[in-house]
TrEMBL record:
It comes from Parahaliea maris. The lineage of its organism: Bacteria, Pseudomonadati, Pseudomonadota, Gammaproteobacteria, Cellvibrionales. Residues 84-146 form the DD-carboxypeptidase/endopeptidase Mpg-like N-terminal domain. CDD domains: M23_peptidase (cd12797). GO terms for molecular function: metal ion binding; metalloendopeptidase activity. The keyword Flavoprotein does not apply. GO terms for cellular component: cell envelope. This is Peptidoglycan DD-metalloendopeptidase family protein. The keyword Metal-binding applies. Residues 177-297 form the Csd3-like second N-terminal domain. Residues 27-37 have a biased composition (Polar residues).
Length: 457
């Protein structure tokens, strides 16, 4: 019976506990209690002086003996217990449906979303997220808890004035440094998987080196990769990957190195050891991890028309639907369909350069649209005069077709950090540079000692 009394008291506490946004109340009132603090405070008060209303309304609501005072762990169990009713956001759900499943109506939705601080954030929900509801003893909605992500929880609590306040809790993950090395046997993708890198990290690695390496043609068996990166942990378990701190790729005997650096104005990018940006004016290839079916050849025999026609570009064979990227920043000057080209997109880059993308399955850019490097402008297909799914890619400089594989040597130089920035840059990358050197030499012991961490891979 004491447990029943305690549960009722806690329900009242949770329903009446004042809460609010720390930011909103900073000037007018002290910081409000958290949900758990409010429950603990009211529980302690009730244990000394039980509510007269509770005594008069039920014969069993008597003052509990001192030994019945709840332990802290009991309070925590009650707060996280059955009072909060969890609802998982389903595909096609809206707030009205979710509130209805929990036993509440559109009036409650309006109160929380439009009358509470930051309430409109609750409208941005996605399948798989959790929304929890707290019901007061009188059946009214006392609180809503929205788990936006493992790192962020927002709680809306009804106060004594009947209005909802907001409490936002943002957790900071633990950052751990990790590193790995690998060797190309067939492709960057397979090597990355063997190294334990996620697909996202493999694609990020390709983006970093995309201005100096064509990952379709350039990699060779025996090429080596070294990566120093962050991993984020929550409660001792890996939550997700963090940033790549530094990486090196040795391709056919030539080593390319990249370091992550935030400059004095807050811009983050990757640079080589000399402070030259890894981001070039154009990508070496507008698709990733595919194979070339036909190289640049001015006397190529056309596979359909069986005549010798100039092949003023490079064909990247890939499955239908493979994303096609804008090779550089620019404006779409043409996007349409023709019988020989199929679906196509032409992009103007400044005054001198044009890139063309033919035989697309889908166009995802419109004429006049501005695009940035690596934006998806379409997908690989076999429209027009094509024998199979592939991207035909052309590069024109001053109106003349150039070999996309070699033109990069004639393109403008990449951005370089100013001399005033170099001392800070060199100081910032020194630890990562030492780690890469240890990885490249195979001296993992030195790497572990330098970082003060246990061996990784």
């Amino acid at each position: 019976m004491a447990v029943a009394v305690l549960t009722g008291i806690v329900a009242i506490a949770a329903g009446l506990a004042p809460g609010g946004s720390v930011e909103a109340n900073r000037e007018t009132s002290p910081a409000p209690d958290s949900t758990e603090q409010a429950v603990e405070r009211i529980l302690a008060t009730t244990a000394e002086s039980p509510s007269p209303d509770r005594e008069s309304s039920t014969a069993t609501a008597v003052e509990p003996p001192p030994a019945a005072e709840p332990a802290p762990e009991m309070v925590a169990d009650v707060v996280a217990g059955p009072e909060w009713k969890d609802e998982t956001v389903r595909s096609g759900d809206n707030l009205s449906l979710i509130f209805k499943r929990a036993g509440f109506d559109n009036g409650d939705v309006h109160e929380v979303v439009y009358e509470s601080p930051e309430g409109k954030g609750l409208a941005r929900i996605y399948p798989g997220q959790t929304i929890s509801f707290l019901e007061a003893p009188n059946g009214k909605l006392a609180g809503v808890k929205y788990v936006a992500s493992p790192l962020e929880t927002v709680t809306y609590l009804r106060g004594e004035d009947g209005k909802f306040s907001t409490e936002r809790i943002v957790r900071e993950p633990e950052v751990r440094e990790s590193w790995t090395s690998g060797e190309i046997t067939s492709s960057l993708y397979m090597a990355g998987q063997d190294m334990g890198l996620s697909q996202v990290k493999i694609l990020e690695l390709a983006n970093i080196f995309g201005g100096v390496i064509d990952f379709v043609l350039d990699p060779r068996k025996g090429d080596t990769i070294h990566v120093v990166y962050e991993e984020l942990y929550l409660d001792g378990e890996k939550y997700r990957d963090g940033d790549i701190i530094a990486a090196s790729f040795t391709n056919q005997g030539e080593t390319f190195t990249a370091y992550r650096y935030e400059d004095s104005v807050g811009d983050v990018s990757y640079y080589n050891a000399d402070g030259v940006s890894m981001r070039k004016a154009f990508l070496m290839a507008p698709v990733d991890f595919t194979r070339i079916s036909s190289n640049f050849n001015m006397k190529r025999l056309h596979p359909i028309y069986k005549t010798t026609r100039p092949h003023r570009g490079t064909d990247y064979a890939a499955p239908t639907g493979t994303p096609v990227y804008a090779a550089g920043d620019g404006r779409v000057i043409k996007a349409g369909y023709s019988r020989p080209n199929g679906n196509y997109v032409f992009i103007q880059h400044g005054d001198r350069y044009v890139t063309k993308y033919l035989h697309l399955h889908k166009r995802m850019a419109k004429q006049g649209q501005r695009v940035a490097q690596s934006d998806v402008i379409g997908t690989v297909g076999s429209t027009g005069a094509a024998t199979g799914p592939h991207l035909h890619y052309e590069f024109l400089m001053d109106g003349v077709h150039r070999n996309p594989r070699t033109i990069h040597k004639q393109l403008p130089k990449a951005k370089t950090l100013p001399k005033s920035e170099m001392p800070s840059f060199l100081e910032a990358i020194t630890p990562a540079s030492q780690q890469l050197a240890a990885l490249q030499s195979g001296n993992h012991l030195a790497l572990n000692q330098a970082s003060g961490e246990a061996p990784q891979r």
